[in-house]
Amino acid sequence: MIHLKNIVKQYGNTSALKQINLEIRNGELVTLIGPSGCGKSTLLRVINRMIEPTSGEILIHGENALNLDPVKLRRSIGYVIQNAGLFPHLTVEKNVEIVTELLGWDKAKRKQRAQELLHVVGLAPEKFAHRYPKELSGGQQQRVGIARALAADPAILLMDEPFSAVDPITREQLQAELLAIQTQVKKTIVFVTHDIHEAVRLGDKVALMQEGEIVQFDTPDQILKSPKNDFVAQFLGQERELQRLSLHLVGDIIQQGHGFFDLEQVNINQEHTISIKANARNALSKLLSGVPSLLVLDDDEKPIARVSVHDFIRGAL
Ligand SMILES: Nc1ncnc2c1ncn2[C@@H]1O[C@H](COP(=O)(O)OP(=O)(O)OP(=O)(O)O)[C@@H](O)[C@H]1O
Ligand SMILES: [Mg+2]
């Protein structure tokens, strides 16, 4: 667990962080979002003491981080930044091995770990291990950055806008991969982003910051459903409801009993269908394209309900 208590960071007259209190549970992925200059990177870097707070307390797994050796602390926490920050003169494999080498792992073990992680991030070692960073695409470099951060198997991973510099398609892929990796490794992750879609897609919780303060700390669903004030609502934007739908499946829409019907009446070949596991936003999108209703199929492809635009408007969620 990461527990920040009354963290203040002052740069002369600028209060980069004002009395931050935040508790992040083990295995939780928290996204930090807010306008430029609101203190996201500062908050992230206070956690591994790349920045020393002016006052306040940082507890990591119950231990006071300010009493730990900062170098050891930094090595025990994975850190990923925009553009990956790889060493240009080192091969991919050597870049991944950096931290484990600093920690004194023997060569065979380091190499084995690097190979394993390149697999995890989707880069076949036989193809990529001996390349240099400039011989990789931006997305591939980010993958190496993630492999490097995971090498020493840290419990905590700090990620500062890691996917901001890649194209939208690669970005979506990297997000999906991060979620897949996270289900395997269950790290405690703090992830800074400017992108609200990314924040709600990745986060178990979202912390929204404004001028050095956390304005709201909630689950993505809750923050989209009940923004605490006008600033939050404005920041989340006009698509708030649609984004919220994208967090749900068709099954969530019908769970309240909407649209259930008598099976006798249905001819599956004459209707547009959608899986109960499909994304609710995609279902609405289909309906808005002019299909009057969708037959919802369960896992065995058996029709169980029918939904129309009204089920979405009715606010089933
Ligand atoms: N070394 C420094 N000296 C003085 N002021 C600083 C320093 N580092 C950051 N600041 C100020 O602290 C505030 C928070 O900066 P920070 O980098 O944490 O913002 P951010 O939310 O990460 O912004 P961005 O989204 O643009 O990356 C800003 O007002 C910034 O100008
Ligand atoms: Mg920043």
Automatic annotation (TrEMBL):
<dbReference type="InterPro" id="IPR005892">
    <property type="entry name" value="Gly-betaine_transp_ATP-bd"/>
</dbReference>
<dbReference type="GO" id="GO:0031460">
    <property type="term" value="P:glycine betaine transport"/>
</dbReference>
<dbReference type="GO" id="GO:0006865">
    <property type="term" value="P:amino acid transport"/>
</dbReference>
<dbReference type="GO" id="GO:0016887">
    <property type="term" value="F:ATP hydrolysis activity"/>
</dbReference>
<keyword id="KW-0813">Transport</keyword>
<comment type="subunit">
    <text>The complex is probably composed of two ATP-binding proteins, two transmembrane proteins and a solute-binding protein.</text>
</comment>
<feature type="domain" description="ABC transporter">
    <location>
        <begin position="2"/>
        <end position="236"/>
    </location>
</feature>
<keyword id="KW-0472">Membrane</keyword>
<dbReference type="Pfam" id="PF00005">
    <property type="entry name" value="ABC_tran"/>
</dbReference>
<keyword id="KW-0997">Cell inner membrane</keyword>
<keyword id="KW-0067">ATP-binding</keyword>
<dbReference type="InterPro" id="IPR017871">
    <property type="entry name" value="ABC_transporter-like_CS"/>
</dbReference>
<dbReference type="InterPro" id="IPR003593">
    <property type="entry name" value="AAA+_ATPase"/>
</dbReference>
<comment type="similarity">
    <text>Belongs to the ABC transporter superfamily.</text>
</comment>
<dbReference type="GO" id="GO:0005524">
    <property type="term" value="F:ATP binding"/>
</dbReference>
<keyword id="KW-0677">Repeat</keyword>
<dbReference type="GO" id="GO:0015418">
    <property type="term" value="F:ABC-type quaternary ammonium compound transporting activity"/>
</dbReference>
<keyword id="KW-1003">Cell membrane</keyword>
<protein>
    <recommendedName>
        <fullName>Quaternary amine transport ATP-binding protein</fullName>
        <ecNumber>7.6.2.9</ecNumber>
    </recommendedName>
</protein>
<keyword id="KW-0547">Nucleotide-binding</keyword>
<dbReference type="InterPro" id="IPR027417">
    <property type="entry name" value="P-loop_NTPase"/>
</dbReference>
<dbReference type="InterPro" id="IPR003439">
    <property type="entry name" value="ABC_transporter-like_ATP-bd"/>
</dbReference>
<dbReference type="GO" id="GO:0005886">
    <property type="term" value="C:plasma membrane"/>
</dbReference>
